[in-house]
């Protein structure tokens, strides 16, 4: 769904159909259906018409069986641009883009002021090392294994407004792509694993670690000697240390 105010009625009706078919989707996939809203735009951009946002929030409110993912680079706008009906809807995941430590320090505190079912980070394109520190969940608890009766021995805790509950990481793609140091991605993975936070490695982008994929292509060497090769987004793939990382938060 794009941010244009001229979206067709058919596009707006599609989530209504998905919402009505929730039981079938859940039976086949063992999870709720997710809608990544305006993946090529920013719902909280100042240039997005208020009428479009109002219509979107009305649609979200009318589709409680869908989980809506809203990603923004402007978390400072969320509180003044959300609907008066907004009260931390249980079917809304709010995320912000974090490319480096500077943006993490600036955007994450603003994100965590927003009530939502899930608060997540999109560290894509990842352009520098990021230490998430106290913004991650308490070590030992994973929203993927929420266990209120402690049947499986997991801590009996719930997510709070003070922590990040999901982290998506990826390198940059396109003709002007900048390389991602492999250890920047590994560090975020390790931080998430230590805190029990789901981690999704979306892509290497244009450059891939020479230890991950063999082949030809221009090399880029970082100051510490780590080397990546430019082979294109498709060829670079999604393997990080030999495996796919496709973790998602579980929502009660």
TrEMBL record:
Domain of life: Bacteria
InterPro entries to which the protein is assigned, alphabetical: DUF5131 (IPR011101)
Name by which UniProt lists this protein: Phage Gp37/Gp68 family protein
């Amino acid at each position: 769904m794009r941010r244009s105010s001229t979206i067709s009625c058919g596009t707006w009706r599609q989530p209504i159909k998905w919402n009505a078919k929730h039981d079938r989707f859940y039976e086949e996939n063992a999870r709720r259906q997710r809608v990544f809203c305006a993946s090529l735009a920013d719902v909280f951009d100042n240039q997005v018409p208020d009428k479009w946002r109002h219509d979107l929030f009305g649609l979200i409110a009318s589709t409680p069986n869908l989980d809506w993912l809203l990603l923004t680079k402007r978390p400072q706008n969320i509180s003044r641009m959300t609907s008066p009906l907004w009260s931390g809807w249980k079917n809304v995941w709010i995320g912000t883009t974090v490319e480096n430590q500077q943006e993490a320090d600036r955007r994450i505190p603003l994100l965590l002021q927003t009530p939502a079912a899930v608060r997540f980070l999109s560290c894509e394109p990842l352009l520098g090392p990021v230490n998430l520190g106290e913004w991650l969940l308490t070590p030992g608890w994973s929203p993927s294994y929420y266990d209120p009766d402690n049947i499986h021995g997991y801590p009996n805790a719930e997510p709070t407004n003070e922590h990040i509950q999901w982290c998506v990481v990826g390198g940059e793609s396109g003709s002007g792509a900048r390389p991602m140091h492999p250890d920047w991605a590994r560090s975020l993975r390790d931080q998430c694993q230590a805190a029990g936070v789901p981690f999704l490695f979306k892509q290497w982008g244009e450059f891939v670690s020479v230890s991950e994929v063999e082949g030809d292509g221009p090399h880029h060497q970082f100051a510490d000697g780590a080397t990546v090769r430019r082979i294109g987004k498709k060829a670079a793939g999604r393997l990080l240390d030999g495996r796919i990382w496709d973790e998602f938060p579980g929502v009660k």
